[in-house]
Amino acid sequence: MGGLGEIYERKMMKDISTKIPPIINLAEKYNLPVEYLRYVVANYGRFYTLEKSEGTSYTDTIFDEIHLEPGLVESLNNLDPSDFMPESDSLQTLYHEMTHAYIDLRENEWATKELIASAETYYEGAKLQNGEEVGRTYQVVQEAAGAYVGHRVATYWNALQGLHWLRNNYSKGIDPLKYGKNSNGSLAEIEKTYNAEMSRIVYGYEQGLFSGQIPVKKPIFHRLKYFCDTVILENKIKAEFSELLKGGTIYTNKFKSLVDEINTQKSIWFDDHSVSPKIWA
Fold first, then answer.
1. Do 269 and 147 share a structural domain?
2. What whole-number distance in Å separates Cα of residue 186 and Cα of residue 199?
3. What is the pLDDT of residue 181?
4. Does position 178 have pLDDT exceeding 50, yes or no?
5. Residues 189-244: tens digit of each pLDDT
6. Which of 88, 98, 226, 230 is buried most deeply by CB count within 10 Å?
7. If you average pLDDT over residues 149-157, what whole number do you get?
8. 157/52 Cα distance (integer angstroms)
9. Does residue 40 share a domain with residue 121?
10. Domain's final residue, options 87, 106, 125
């Protein structure tokens, strides 16, 4: 039986379950993976937030509940990469927690059970950043999957926002590089940042008793990564930026469409192509 603190916290929880499907519909509009999100919404419990708290998000696998930090859902209500709002952190958290719930829902299926068992074996004896060995392998597996999925989605969204920012500047005849060299200053910089983030291979942590989250030092289990890429992310989040430009047309591929518009506007306003990296010529 929970203490007074837990009773008070549950009293302050606000059910936000009906606010999740519209966010998923918006995410689908930008070709983000959504099938597993809908699976969780249809088969898991409820979604809650604390009305007056700065608490962090977490998934309660005992009560089948996802608790999202205050303000997270509101920040995604009008999900749009062209509004240049800091939405990637909220997307990262939502996809992270949904991954925990999805694995929890499917962990008794033979294939998933075998994958988790193999992943736990892989992490046995792995080193944590504090020099100790992993003690709770299941937790590391769950956190590796959640962190991997969340990070991939956030990186995708940051690149999409960067392209919108470039197009917005070029359409006004503004050289984005006048703001200084940064991750959104050119197509080449956006590609470089995207590829660098996607090359990250270490994810997951173990919760210490007194020291908070202790990151694991071992790369994500290759089969767990494959599961995340294919089943959860639906092969939509590519490892290389150039892969995002393949498939579809400028009318159906948002990345291809944005790059085409950027190059067109760049040609109109900057005849010398001084801000056009050779690879985009």
1. yes
2. 20
3. 52
4. yes
5. 899 999 999 999 999 999 877 778 999 999 999 999 999 999 999 999 999 999 99
6. 98
7. 97
8. 29
9. no
10. 106
Q: Which two tokens stand for residue 273?
A: 């192509």
Are 41 and 20 in contact by the 8 Å Cβ rule? The answer is yes
Helix axes 20-29, 35-43, angle to 10 degrees: 170
Query: Distance (Å, rounded) from C-alpha 137 to C-alpha 126?
Result: 9
Nearest alpha carbon to residue 68 among 54, 81, 78: 54
119 and 80 within one domain = no
Look at the block and give the residue holding tokens 């597996």.
141
Residue 3 has pLDDT above 80, yes or no: no
- The closest of 234, 259, 233, 232 to 246, measured between CA atoms, is 259
Q: Which residue has the tokens 């010529």?
A: 281
One-character DSSP codes across 191-232: HHHHHHHHT--B--EEE-SSS-EEEB-SBPPHHHHHHIIIII
Give me the domain span that covers residue 173: 109-281
Same domain membership, residue 169 and residue 265: yes
The pLDDT of residue 59: 94
Going from the C-alpha of 146 to that of each of 93, 124, 254, the distances in angstroms are: 9, 19, 26
- Per residue in 34-93, pLDDT (tens digit) is 999 999 999 998 999 876 555 689 999 999 999 998 889 999 999 999 887 889 999 999
The amino acid that residue 11 corresponds to is K
| 8-18 pLDDT, tens digit each | 455 568 899 99
Residue at which a domain ends, from 39, 73, 106: 106
Contact call for residues 141 and 120 (beta carbons, < 8 A): yes
